[in-house]
Amino acid sequence: MDEYEKLIANSKKQQLSDSQQQKLNQQMRRSVSLSKMNLMVGTITIILMILPVSYIFTFLYYAFGTKSTTLMDVTSQTLYVTEPNTSLEEIEFDMEFFPFSMQLQFDQYKRIGKEDYKVNNYDMRYTLGNLTKKEVSSQLERVQRKNPNETSPWLTHPKNQSEVDTWREWEVLRGLPDETVVEAYISFHDLHTVDEIRSSFRNVDVVWAAVDTGVEEKNLSKDGDVVSPIGYPVQVDNTTWSPFRDAYSNEQVFIDILNYIVQYEDLATKVSSHKNLELAERIDYINKNGIKTYGVVVTGPKNEIEKLEDINLIRKIKLGEVKLWNWTN
Fold first, then answer.
1. Cα separations in angstroms, 231 against 89, 100, 251, 263, 282
2. Distance CA 188, CA 157 (A)
3. Tens-digit pLDDT profile for residues 235-254
4. Contact call for residues 97 and 248 (beta carbons, < 8 A)
5. Of 49, 65, 81, which one is at a domain's C-terminal end?
6. Domain Sigma factor regulator N-terminal spans what residues (predicted)?
7. What are the pLDDT digits (tens) for 175-210?
């Protein structure tokens, strides 16, 4: 009987032990669930704290660090002096802020005949002052080479061995309908002042001039890197946000722009489609030698552009965009 009682007692102890174990397991599961819940709540709380803090930091950075207006100015002014015959409407700039970054979207226009046509849309993202995204949607029909070499620019120095087939370009021009207006890139045999060129081109509009900066003969910097034309709009620009609006001298505004964007040359180089600007070297040359042009962009009626073939100072021509008649005097 003693052995039997011991067996019963041990069985009761085992049952009690199993019950305690189940309770312990339940407590552990509740503890794990509670810990997971606390972790989730903590994570969500941190995220909710990080987002407003990151936005506050972003706004402060673009207000007092590298200002959003500085990024916009460098971007727009770089395009004016590196992209021939283009303009921007900064009032149409779409600016949006994200944590640590700013997005900028805008359209680019070309003067063809007497009207401005939208030709590019830019979508750019700046992360703490650095350009980290650049997407360009183009509506151009004739696009310059993305990776220029020494002889590929459409505007070329008198001593540069240009790849442009001028005979073919004149033939294409002659084949265009009379009821069209044309954008043309004209290169000269010699260097000239812009006033000299404008007085020679009476019945077309000279819209942009490429400036001789000492590197265009070979289109190479001192370091042997390929550079591309820079210049400035020639005509009066009354666009609301243009840096050339109401300018006493477009040449002086051009020099002022170069002196400004050279402070942000890394950014300006990323903004430009040309990957090497060498601004300091070129500014020094302009300060010593003044401003002379070796090529201009003109626009006008097809027949008037065709008449330019008789002007002896023209060395090369490259056709740009063509549109239906919109010419008015």
1. 19, 34, 9, 18, 11
2. 7
3. 888 777 788 888 889 999 99
4. no
5. 65
6. 42-116
7. 999 999 999 999 999 999 999 999 999 899 999 999
Mark whether 135 and 48 lie in a shared domain: no
pTM: 0.82
User: Do 19 and 119 reside in the same domain of the chain?
Assistant: no
Q: Give CA–CA dist 144/217, Å, rounded.
A: 19
CB neighbour list of residue 196: distance below 8 Å, 6 or more residues apart: none
> What is residue 278's three-state secondary structure?
coil
In a domain, 254, yes or no: yes
Residues contacting residue 270 through CB under 8 Å, at least 6 positions apart: 131, 134
Nearest-angstrom CA–CA distance, 129 and 151: 34
Helix (H, G, I), strand (E, B) or coil at 209: strand
Domain span including residue 96: 70-324
CB-based contacts of 128, cutoff 8 Å, min separation 6: 61, 65, 66, 100, 101
